[in-house]
Specification:
The chain has helices at about 25-30, 80-90, 105-120, 135-155, 170-180, 195-215, 255-260, 265-285, 305-310; strands spanning about 10-15, 50-55, 60-65, 95-100, 120-130, 160-165, 225-235, 245-250, 285-295. By secondary structure, it is α/β, with parallel strands linked by helices. Helix 3 (about 105-120) links the parallel strand 4 and strand 5. The structure holds guanosine-5'-triphosphate. Guanosine-5'-triphosphate (GTP) binds near residues 26, 70, 128, 131 and 167.
Length: about 300
C-alpha cells in the first residue's frame, strides 16, 4: 500500500442524497466493495454516520449519512432544514441520486432545493440504475437532470452528471474518481487496516439503535440499549458469496416500550430490521442475516448490575 502521506493523496467526506429507493445503499455497497476497515467508531464529525469507506491508492472517500435529508415528511420545518444544510456543509462533495427509470418528481425537486441551499459544496448528479432502461431513456434522463441542475443551481448547474449501474458495475469506479477530485489534499482519515471485532460491533450497534429510534425518538429518548451478541460468518459459503450472522439484543426498560419498538403485528420491528440491515450491509460491504430480539431489562439505566451486563 502506498503511504497515505504520498504527494497528491486526497481524503474527505461525501454524502449520497436522493429520495427513498433512488439506489443510494446499493451504490454505497458497489463503491465500498468488499470489507470495510473501520478502526474508530466515531467519525471526525459526530453529526454523521459512516456508511462505508472507499480506499484507493490515491484517495480515501468516507461515505456518510445525514439524518433528515431523505425523509421530508419527518422534517420539523425550517429548524431541521437548517440543521441538514449545516451538516451537509461539513462534507466535501454531495452525490445526488436520481434513478434512470423514474421521472424526476416533487421529492427530487425538494431535495435538489435543499442541496442548492448548502452553498459551496459541489453537487454531483448521479443517474442510477441505468441497466433498467435503454440508451435513449438514459440520454433523456441525463438531459432532464441537466435542466433540473440549471433550474435549482443556476447557470453552472451540477458539478458533473454521472450515469451508473451499481448492479452491473457500470461507471462506479468513474464516479469514485469524480468524487475524489473534490476532496482536499489530506492524509487518509482512517487506517486501511484490519477490521477488529470491537469497533465493528460498536458501529453495528449504533446503526441498529438509530433505526430503532427512527420516528419514536420522543417516546423512547434514552431507553434503548443495543448489545451485539455476535457477528459470525455463515459456514459453507463461497468467498464471493459471504453471509454474516449478526445476533443482536435490543433492551428497553418497560413492556410498553417493547410494544412501541415491535409495533402492530411486529410491523415496526420488521421495518427497523430492514433499515438496520441495509445500513449494516453498506457499512460492512457484505450481506448479513440480522437476528434481532427485543427484551425488557427493567430500569436498566438505574441498575448498575444491568448496566455492566449491557456493556456500559
Ligand atoms: N437494476 C438495478 N436495480 C438497482 C440498482 N441500484 C439499486 N437498485 C434497486 O433499487 C431498489 C432501491 O435501492 P436502494 O439501494 O435500497 O435504494 P436507497 O436509495 O438506498 O433506498 P432507501 O434506503 O429507501 O433510501 C432496490 O431494490 C435495489 O436492488 C441498479 O443499479 N440496477
Amino acid at each position: 500500500m502506498p503511504s497515505p502521506k504520498a504527494d497528491g493523496f486526497r481524503a474527505g467526506f461525501a454524502v449520497l442524497a436522493g429520495r427513498p429507493n433512488a439506489g443510494k445503499s446499493t451504490l454505497t455497497n458497489a463503491l465500498v466493495g468488499h470489507k470495510v476497515a473501520i478502526t474508530s467508531a466515531k467519525p471526525q464529525t459526530t453529526r454523521h454516520t459512516i456508511r462505508g469507506i472507499v480506499h484507493r491508492d490515491t484517495f480515501q472517500l468516507v461515505l456518510v449519512d445525514t439524518p433528515g435529508l431523505h425523509r421530508p415528511r419527518t422534517l420539523l420545518g425550517k429548524r431541521l432544514n437548517d440543521l441538514v444544510a449545516d451538516t451537509l456543509s461539513e462534507v466535501d462533495v454531495i452525490g445526488f441520486c436520481l434513478p434512470a427509470n423514474e421521472k424526476i418528481g416533487p421529492g427530487d425537486r425538494y431535495i435538489a432545493a435543499q442541496l442548492a441551499n448548502v452553498g459551496k459544496q459541489a453537487v454531483v448528479a448521479i443517474v442510477t440504475k441505468t441497466d433498467t432502461v435503454d440508451r435513449q431513456a438514459v440520454t433523456d434522463q441525463l438531459i432532464a437532470v441537466e435542466k433540473l441542475g440549471r433550474e435549482v443551481l443556476g447557470e453552472a448547474g451540477f458539478a458533473a452528471i454521472v450515469p451508473v449501474s451499481a448492479v452491473e458495475d457500470f461507471q462506479v469506479e468513474s464516479l469514485a474518481s469524480v468524487f475524489s477530485a473534490y476532496l482536499p489534499l489530506s492524509p487518509a482519515l482512517y487506517p486501511d487496516g484490519e477490521l477488529t471485532d470491537e469497533p465493528e460491533a460498536v458501529m453495528v450497534a449504533e446503526l441498529i439503535r438509530e433505526a430503532a429510534l427512527e420516528g419514536v425518538r420522543d417516546e423512547l429518548p434514552h431507553s434503548i440499549a443495543v448489545v451485539v451478541e455476535e457477528i459470525v460468518p455463515r459456514e459453507g459459503r463461497s468467498d464471493d458469496n459471504q453471509l454474516l450472522d449478526v445476533r443482536v439484543n435490543l433492551y428497553v426498560e418497560r413492556p410498553s416500550q417493547k410494544a412501541i419498538i415491535i409495533g402492530k403485528g411486529g410491523a415496526r420491528l420488521r421495518e427497523v430490521g430492514t433499515n438496520a440491515r441495509h445500513a449494516i450491509e453498506a457499512l460492512l460491504g457484505t450481506k448479513i442475516y440480522l437476528d434481532l430480539h427485543v427484551k425488557v431489562a427493567k430500569d436498566w439505566q438505574r441498575d448498575p448490575k444491568q448496566l455492566v451486563k449491557l456493556g456500559f
